[in-house]
Amino acid sequence: MLAEFGPASLLAEIRQGGTLVGLGLLGRRARRWDMLRSPSLHLGEVDDGASAALTTEYNGFLSVRGLEPEISRAGLAAISAFGGWRELVLPGVAPHLAAQCASVRLTRKHLAPFAVFGPVDPLDGLSRNSRHQIRRSLKLYQGMDLEPVSPEWFERLAELHGAYWRGRGQPGAFAHPKVAAFHRRLLAAGDAELLRLSHGGEEIGYLYNFVHDGWAYAYQSGFHYDPDPRRKPGLAGHLLAMRSYRAQGLRGYRFLAGDSRYKSSLATEKDTLVWAIADRGDPLHRLERWLRS
């Protein structure tokens, strides 16, 4: 992120007995919103506002394992004591992190569906309708192959993904040059993976996923959508990915924030993620809250 988007103004360091145990990356910007113009700090982002297009989720402080709650509290306390801001923007965080701020307003809240892998095939834990649609899709494709591919295939993913979203009047996740460069760098470093879906060597689509701490995270995708609506490459492709990750010993598959129907169809449980703005409780922010109410 620093290499592609430029510097961050602050790095919060949390130490225990002199040992570094936590970090928080903070970008500083002049942020215009409804009624006030306030300098703000953005957790997990840098000074360039384009970094928000990466849509970080499960955001927070980097911490050593087992000390996450303590590091979050210490990090927020350190930021609060720092005088160079009037708003702290918390994008894509767990509700309990935002709740630790004394004066905070939620701007968005999204469910984040996920599936926990059990002793049975992931398909067996889905609804009857979802099972029927996936089995029918796989049958109509006469089988579907899933394989990991090299970072060079990112260009095909971005092309298919962008074509779909441009057809809906939106630019897509990789339209900004800095965002695309960031993902090329991330994939080249081996910190993300691409999965290619095909049938008889013919391209069907791609999944772009992260794997961390025993979980797979479905970040983006791009598909050839068939004129036959019974063929559902997304449902079938994610199911194959879930089977593969389960075979590798992962705990589950996270679909990240959003209420897309395919996510609900494949998920067994749901998290909640929030986008929030904390402030110092100064008179202008109290006035703003009063006007909102």
Please tell me about this protein's structure.
The protein has helices spanning 2-5, 68-81, 95-99, 128-140, 154-166, 177-188, 233-247, 261-266, 283-292; strands spanning 10-16, 19-32, 37-43, 62-63, 87-93, 104-116, 145-149, 193-199, 202-212, 215-223, 252-254, 269-279. It is of the alpha+beta class and 293 residues long. The chain folds into 2 domains: 2-110 and 273-292, Aminopeptidase, CATH 3.40.630; 118-250, Aminopeptidase, CATH 3.40.630.30. Strands 1, 2, 3, 4, 5, 6, 7, 8, 9, 10, 11 and 12 form a 12-stranded mixed beta sheet that branches. Helix 4 (128-140) packs across helix 7. The radius of gyration is 21 Å and the shape is elongated.
At a glance:
This protein is of the alpha+beta class and 293 residues long. The chain contains 9 helices and 12 strands. Strands 1, 2, 3, 4, 5, 6, 7, 8, 9, 10, 11 and 12 form a 12-stranded mixed sheet that branches.
Helix-strand blueprint:
Elements: H1 2-5, E1 10-16, E2 19-32, E3 37-43, E4 62-63, H2 68-81, E5 87-93, H3 95-99, E6 104-116, H4 128-140, E7 145-149, H5 154-166, H6 177-188, E8 193-199, E9 202-212, E10 215-223, H7 233-247, E11 252-254, H8 261-266, E12 269-279, H9 283-292
Parallel strand pairs: 3-5, 10-11
Antiparallel strand pairs: 1-2, 2-3, 2-4, 5-12, 6-11, 6-12, 7-8, 8-9, 9-10
Helix pairs in contact: 4-7
**Form type:** elongated
Q: Mind telling me the CATH class of the largest domain?
A: Alpha Beta
Looking at the overall shape, the CATH architecture of the largest domain is 3-Layer(aba) Sandwich
Can you give the mean pLDDT? Answer: 92
For the record, what is the CATH homologous superfamily label of the largest domain? Gcn5-related N-acetyltransferase (GNAT)
Order of helices and strands: HEEEEHEHEHEHHEEEHEHEH
Work out the strand percent. Answer: 25-35%
Secondary-structure content class: alpha+beta
Radius of gyration: 21 Å
